[in-house]
Automatic annotation (TrEMBL), chain A:
It is a multi-pass membrane protein. It comes from Rohdeia mirabilis. PANTHER family: ABC TRANSPORTER PERMEASE PROTEIN (PTHR30193), INNER MEMBRANE ABC TRANSPORTER PERMEASE PROTEIN YCJO (PTHR30193:SF37). The keyword Membrane applies. GO terms for biological process: transmembrane transport. Keywords: Cell membrane, Membrane, Transmembrane, Transmembrane helix, Transport. Pfam families: BPD_transp_1 (PF00528). This is Lactose transport system permease protein LacF. The chain crosses the membrane at residues 12-37, 71-92, 104-124, 152-176, 210-231, 257-279. It is found in: Cell membrane. The keyword Lipoprotein does not apply. GO terms for cellular component: plasma membrane.
UniProtKB/TrEMBL annotation, chain B:
This is L-arabinose transport system permease protein AraQ. The gene is araQ. GO terms for cellular component: plasma membrane. Its main location: membrane. InterPro entries: MetI-like, MetI-like_sf.
């Protein structure tokens, strides 16, 4: 078949994707770039305003609050998720009775609707008579107002995100199967402690999985939306207002499509920059450490 | 490891395992427990897992419990502030339509990337994967306007129509699987006079049922759980899906009793957990693949 014929066959088979790509990604992305430079209230036609939206963002204190909250949430949640997921995966690697049940339990929060998880936790975290504070009270600790205190709300959301780690645990579990057992045994015979075996053999071997999990969780965390929307609606005092929520509010509640588009592009640019940086960093570190482990 | 430390180690790991089991099960158990209590007892954490409902003897208590369950779950299904039977129907329609269309369209596209040779194929596949990077906040406003232009805001179509045009992750998963099928199968079919469509229909699809099932299930669960899509594209309560209806039930009527709210959560979660329990292998394998090849 000629090259043109081949190209045509390939494009015919992949056509469903290209049609959807044009309709739901390419055109919307192009429109969003354009709206970012206009004032658009959905009723009248978009009015070009040049870079006014971006200039306004630079001086918008709410944007800086949202950026700060998103940054703190992402940094803490990525760290917590990775550590919790790795600890769980290592624990579930041990030959223990009942570990399949625990594996299923850990995966459950990842599987069910986030709104149901969020409403369930609202009930657990109720200030006076929620289960968490009742249990803490029984231990003699006065629990905080988890979601109603501006100093606690963001931290509470981070802690909750550490409970939704099923996918990361799966990734680590799959990676742990590739750790050479003979090497671990040889190191144990040579007197290496469990801790040093973890640091010198296990972690270097699974470092690609660590990098993958960190990057995927970071992208999720930088775009987090449903969790704070349901649990706190961005409050109290904007302490849990994140970028996605501020974009949504501007687009659909304040009728400021242009401003919302500009905000979304800043969020996208930040996500891209951080992801690229993380991928670069991972590429260097992951290779050298695997190389060192032989 | 010496024989002396082994029992200590086992005790520690089992304690950790039980602690994790509790931490991950407790929110679900408490949700279920609250959902079968009368509201007055739900608000009293001292009541324990099962309510005190009176009733004489074992069967009397069981009867009283069954009555209370009927009152709570019946109260949710017949609630005046939310129409859960309709939300159920909407969720089922959206999840089935989305999963079916996604599986069919992604299979076509994946065949085009796995089995058809054409110039530019690798670059094109990178574009497919690249769409996973675009955050929903960037495209949500233009997509909303597009659906509004088409007169589809106020229908369920925006929630499942995009699935008819394949999705990056599903295409990735299926392409991976198709490439693993032995090429001898194709050649045998080609000698028998099959073209690409014949190979796709008679050879590739029948040999790919595990991967097709995984894509169907993942998309079913994703559509069932989707919160932001319904939030942006639906504007009438009659179109709400369970994930969104639950949040509205919780937020717009501050007076919704917690026992009923938890019953609503259970009703939202249950179908996904059932699907998961029935098809656990397909799920875990597909997630593991994502981890290894990502």
């Amino acid at each position: 078949m000629s090259a043109r014929g081949e190209l045509r066959t390939g494009l015919v088979w992949t056509a469903p994707f290209w049609i959807g790509f044009a309709l739901f990604t390419a055109v919307p992305v192009a429109l969003s770039i354009r709206y970012g430079f206009t004032q658009y209230d959905l009723i009248e036609d978009p009015l070009p305003v040049g870079g006014a939206n971006y200039a306004e963002i630079a001086h918008d204190p709410v944007f800086w609050t949202a950026l700060r909250n998103t940054g703190i949430f992402a940094a803490c949640s990525v760290t917590l998720n990775t550590v919790v997921a790795l600890a769980l995966a290592l624990l579930l690697e041990q030959k223990l009775r009942g570990r399949e049940l625990v594996r299923a339990l850990v995966f459950a929060p990842t599987l069910v609707p986030i709104s149901a998880v969020a409403v369930g936790w609202l009930w657990l975290l109720k200030r006076d008579d929620g289960l968490v504070n009742t249990a803490l009270g029984a231990l003699g600790v006065a629990g905080p107002d988890w979601l109603g205190d501006a100093d606690w709300a963001l931290a509470t959301l981070v802690l909750m995100s550490g409970w939704i780690v099923g996918a990361q645990v799966m990734v680590f579990t799959a990676a742990l199967r590739d750790v050479p057992k003979s090497l671990l045994e040889a190191a144990a015979v040579d007197g290496a402690t469990a801790w040093s075996r973890l640091w010198r053999i296990t972690l270097p071997t699974i470092s690609p999985a660590v990098a993958f999990n960190v990057i995927v969780s970071a992208i999720w965390a930088l775009q987090v939306f449903a969790l704070p929307l349901i649990m706190t609606r961005g409050g109290p005092q904007n302490s849990t207002l994140v970028l996605s929520m501020y974009v949504y509010q501007n687009a659909f509640q304040y009728g400021r499509m242009g401003y919302a588009s500009a905000l979304a592009w800043i969020q996208f640019a930040l996500t891209c920059a951080l992801t690229i940086a993380a991928v670069r960093f991972a590429r260097r570190r992951v290779h050298t450490r695997v190389g060192a482990a032989g | 490891m010496s024989a002396r430390t082994r029992p200590v180690r086992a005790a520690v790991t089992y304690t950790l395992l039980v602690a994790c089991a509790c931490a991950w099960a407790a929110p679900f158990v408490w949700m279920l427990s609250t959902s079968i209590k009368p509201e007055s007892q739900a608000l009293d954490p001292g009541v324990g897992l099962l309510p005190n409902l009176g009733g004489t003897g074992f069967f009397g208590s069981l009867r009283a419990l069954a009555d209370q369950i009927a009152v709570n779950y019946g109260g949710v299904l017949e609630s005046e502030s939310a129409d859960f039977p309709t939300y159920y129907r909407n969720s089922i329609v959206v999840a089935l339509a989305s999963a079916s269309l996604m599986t069919i369209s992604s299979a076509f596209v994946a065949y085009g990337f796995a089995r058809v040779r054409w110039p530019g194929r690798e670059v094109a596949f990178a574009v497919v994967l690249g769409t996973m990077m675009v955050p929903f906040t960037v495209v949500m406003a233009p997509q909303y306007l597009l659906f509004k232009e088409l007169g589809l805001i106020g229908t369920l179509l925006p929630l499942w129509l995009p699935s008819a045009f394949a999705g990056a992750f599903s295409v990735f998963l299926l392409r991976q699987f198709f490439m693993g099928l032995p090429p001898e199968l194709d050649e045998a079919a080609r000698i028998d006079g099959c073209g690409h469509f014949g190979i796709f229909w008679r050879v590739v699809l029948p040999n790919s049922t595990p991967a097709l099932a995984a894509v169907f299930l993942l998309q079913f669960v994703a559509a069932w759980n989707d919160f932001v899509g319904p939030l942006v594209f639906l504007n009438h309560q009659e179109q709400y899906t369970l994930a969104l209806g639950l949040q509205m039930y919780q937020s717009s009527h501050g007076g919704t009793p917690w026992s009923l709210l938890m019953a609503a959560c259970v009703l939202t979660i249950l179908p996904v957990l059932l699907v998961f329990a029935l098809f656990q292998r397909a799920f875990t394998e597909s997630v593991a693949t994502r981890g290894l090849k990502g």
